[in-house]
Amino acid sequence: MKKVATKRPTSRTDKPLSVGITCYPSVGGSGIVASQLGAELAMAGHKIHFISYEPPFRLDRNQPNVQFHQVQLNEYNLFKYPDYTLPLAVKMVEVASTFRLDVLHVHYAVPHATAAFLAHVAPVAAGFATVWDSRAHESGAYQPIWTVASEALRRVNLIG
Description:
The protein has helices at 29-43, 85-99, 112-120, 136-139, 143-155; strands at 18-22, 47-52, 66-70, 103-107, 128-132, 158-159.
């Protein structure tokens, strides 16, 4: 049977979406899968905004419709380790308000879902969030973290 070429819809209204993607940018699965997802969405005409502390390993920053927004980590002498969740949430709100995000997609529940929840309570944030987390079972091994992450997942208008 001959394959018939069809136009791929970009959305229900054929209006390009503005999508924020947050991932761990390393060589591992999160950065690779997120980069590929973003590249495919960008090729379909959507505006893609990567939000992370550094560009994902495989991200082609010269690809049309792709932008990278760097999260600045706070270094406080009071704290032994820098906080990432709150600065990430602040950057998510900034990108959502500046670029009018329709969707915020986060790779990994910890800490990205919590940051998405914090960003979601701001009136300018994206309408809903999606989460990809292949290691949710590992997050659940440390119950105090999973309690917070699962509540954040529950409270964000989640599609997952």
